[in-house]
């Protein structure tokens, strides 16, 4: 007799147990709407409550909702009921990478490919202020194409609480991948701690065993703290040098990711016979960064703009419809496109809108780079991680006293742009905006409402 499928929140059909961690279980799931396979991590709310780190979890989850990287398990959504929080994530069909290592050490080229993917993933999150702090075999998964996927990024607050609880010392949390400064419970830098763990991963991939290991936990701690590295004779000399710098017990002198990327072994090309495209389903640049962050959607109307006139472009009814939320085609693309632009209508003349934008540029210490037909380019003065932040504001005339303005990032870092848009530009535009047409899109972004229940509950607890 077939049992009734277990449906979570009328959205996901629950399948088999994929594994169990400290905070809860991970199940296979399938979207009842799209049929897409997912992994659902269920965490008891009280376990998070006890950590008192809801704010940090919320912040990091918000960031993770915005991130897209081919080597990071994507967080699709976060749901909650009275007792549990559900993280709906991309499902990694290939399981844990280390199941491969369990069958024997990997060939240099294979290890090299995984190591590069790991460093790309870690670097990407670090650039967004998110540290992993728990890089270990259970969190390094493979997709069906054999590409590496790091999981649990964004849950580092949980890791922290695990450490405070001393759970690190239980069989749930092996310290084998943990940096010496973390074990010593000194204040530590999440970036450096992650680099250490990546070093341990590289060693294990190539050796098939741990660099610092002992059945006695105290002895293992001692070995980690001393970090006396012995590379087996089959390790290429360049790898030994790189590992020596990554497994430096002093976090201050430990090699940063920027230098790892420059290291000759990291940069080496794989042998042609093993060379396969790194990612099949995602667009990745040669440096491993995801393209949507760098590419600009070219707007045909903007391309028409030339000359020095600041007069807005006039648009027709079709343009208005296609720019209104209900007909927003960008919804059919991924989030990284959606979050790039914001639109509002204004019942003020163009010159008022332009002078407002100029004021804002001044306040933000940005210069107005270019004024073309209806287009203002606001350019930052300093170089960010992805170049100078440049924001385009394009004004379309519907009638002389009714305009549509589109604000979007044309260069620089998406997160930096979003922060400025939310915290500075939107509030500053308040008195000239009639209606924000992209409100709906902005609200659907990070998890502002997510974990709301968690917060409410916490508040109630602190009041009682
Ligand atoms: P911790 O509680 O310290 O985070 P953990 O990482 O082992 O420990 P979970 O993250 O809860 O615990 O994961 C449990 C197991 O579920 C993992 O060992 C992994 O094999 C499996 N798993 C987790 N996420 C996925 C996923 N997205 N796709 C496939 N399997 C997964
Ligand atoms: Mg995990």
TrEMBL record:
The NAF domain, residue ranges: 310-334
Record flagged with keyword Manganese: yes
Residue sites binding ATP per the record: 41
EC number, as in UniProt: 2.7.11.1
Pfam families reported for this sequence: NAF, Pkinase
PANTHER family in alphabetical order: CALCIUM/CALMODULIN-DEPENDENT PROTEIN KINASE KINASE-RELATED (PTHR43895), NON-SPECIFIC SERINE_THREONINE PROTEIN KINASE (PTHR43895:SF154)
Protein name, UniProt field: non-specific serine/threonine protein kinase
Name of the gene this protein is made from: Vigan.05G170800
